[in-house]
UniProtKB/TrEMBL annotation:
GO molecular function: citrate synthase activity
EC number: 2.3.3.16
Reaction equation(s) it catalyzes: oxaloacetate + acetyl-CoA + H2O = citrate + CoA + H(+)
Full protein name: Citrate synthase
Lineage: Archaea, Methanobacteriati, Methanobacteriota, Stenosarchaea group, Methanomicrobia
Protein family membership: Belongs to the citrate synthase family.
Signal peptide (from-to): none
Pfam family for this entry, one: Citrate_synt
Involved pathway(s): Carbohydrate metabolism; tricarboxylic acid cycle
Keywords: Transferase, Tricarboxylic acid cycle
Catalytic machinery residues: H259, D316
Nucleotide-binding found in the keyword field: no
One GO CC term on file: cytoplasm
Length: 366
């Protein structure tokens, strides 16, 4: 076999896609040709539609899309009962993967694999993920499960089901932006895993479970939980510099920093930083934001000093700070990420089915 091995498939172009564009040198991220910074101000339903259908919805198309998602929010007593059997020490992500698997058994389009059926299955998962994640969180806390509200936006309803009370307007807008900023990122590991499962012509639920299992790891979406734990551990802006130095001395990774593709500031991190500042100000509590800014500053300085080049925050850093202010428990963080990412996975799986070739790379035998 010819050719050198690109470890971790770095810079390997595996397929063509018309969903997401990234310029890692300039820090540009676009879904279907639109900058993510601008999309972050829309509703999740609009961006989800754009990702899945490849175009902006007309008013009546958006209305029908949102109505279907709202009507599909409920998960039913069997799934809630099974959530109650889950080990409450696990991350919500593990419960989400169990319930996604079980959901496939009850799906009306079970055993049908065509574009219309797959779009319906995908929309059911998009609609039900918030209900699964929040129901698990409430059962874990010994609380009653809250039925979805059929009028609130995707994000506002998520916070409502998590807490049992309506979020403020700012909180609702911020969680909506969070879901949008998390919705897609080209061939990230979980999307590649989902597309690989799809390429075998397996079913959509299996592909999404592949994505969930991959997102969970701390080098990918699991970093968001690690960032929240890091903020708790540091606990005061004064502790940030030493924490960073200690990481450098021990040759340990700083969670929420670095990226395979971005060689500069992750554009999503910039938006999340602004959201974190806004929510900190609304709550009149700058503590977590100030710790985060100190970590960012120390990381920049110390990595330049010690390693000759800076490291920048990625999507998981300031999103972790935002989650602290939204009272999202750390063990829920990756599942909340998945609640946004599900639209991207569905869009990619539909694209893969539409022009499929089995994904099957080679290994160099040594
Ligand atoms: N802390 C310290 N150093 C880092 C970090 C970090 N977070 N990230 C990269 N580096 C350094 C490495 O030590 C290495 O330095 P060297 O060239 O002197 O040996 C260099 O940057 C390249 O690092 P790799 O780990 O080889 O880069 P890779 O592209 O394989 O990894 C990854 C990318 C996994 C995201 C890495 O930056 C990391 O582990 N970050 C922390 C975990 C994290 O935040 N993950 C979330 C990523 S975003 C997402 O998936 C949703």
């Amino acid at each position: 076999m010819k050719g050198e091995v690109e470890t971790g498939l770095e810079n390997v172009v595996a397929l063509e896609s018309s969903i997401t564009f990234i310029d890692g040198e300039k820090g540009i991220l676009q879904y279907r040709g639109y900058d993510v910074e601008k999309l972050a101000n829309l509703t999740y339903d609009e961006v989800s539609y754009l990702l899945i259908h490849g175009k902006n919805p007309e008013d009546e198309e958006l209305e029908a899309y949102s109505r279907t998602l709202k009507d599909e929010r409920r998960i039913g007593s069997t799934l809630i009962e099974v959530l109650g059997f889950c080990n409450f020490n696990i991350e919500a992500m593990d419960a989400l993967k169990t319930i996604t698997s079980l959901m496939s058994h009850c799906d009306p389009d079970l055993n049908t694999n065509n574009p219309q059926a797959n779009t319906r299955k995908g929309m059911r998962m998009i609609a039900k993920f918030p209900t699964i994640v929040t129901s698990f969180s409430r059962l874990k806390r010994g609380m009653n499960v809250i039925e979805p509200d059929y009028e609130m936006s995707h994000g506002a309803n998520f916070l409502y089901m998590l807490r049992g009370s309506r979020p403020t307007n700012l909180e609702a807008r911020i969680i909506e932006s969070d879901f949008i900023l998390s919705a897609d990122h080209e061939l990230n590991p979980s999307t590649f895993a989902a597309r690989t499962v799809t390429s075998t012509l397996s079913d959509l639920h299996s592909a999404v479970i592949g994505g969930l299992c991959t997102l969970k790891g701390p080098l990918h979406g699991g970093a968001r939980m690690a960032v929240m734990n890091m903020l708790d551990e540091i606990d005061s802006p004064k502790g940030a510099q030493n924490f960073v130095l200690h990481k450098i001395e021990k040759h340990e990774k700083l969670m929420g920093f670095g990226h395979r593709v971005y060689k500069t500031y992750d554009p999503r991190a910039r938006v999340y930083k602004q959201l974190a500042r806004e929510i900190a100000m609304e709550k009149n509590d700058m503590k977590w934001f100030e710790i985060a800014e100190k970590i960012e500053g120390a990381a920049y300085e110390e990595y330049v000093q010690n390693r000759g080049k800076p490291i920048y925050p990625n999507v998981d850093f300031y999103s972790g700070v935002v989650y602290k202010y939204l009272d999202i428990p750390p063990k829920l963080a990756t599942a909340v990420f998945a609640t946004g990412r599900i639209s991207g996975w569905i869009a990619h799986c539909l694209e893969q089915y539409s022009d499929n070739r089995l994904i099957r790379p080679r290994a160099k035998f040594v």
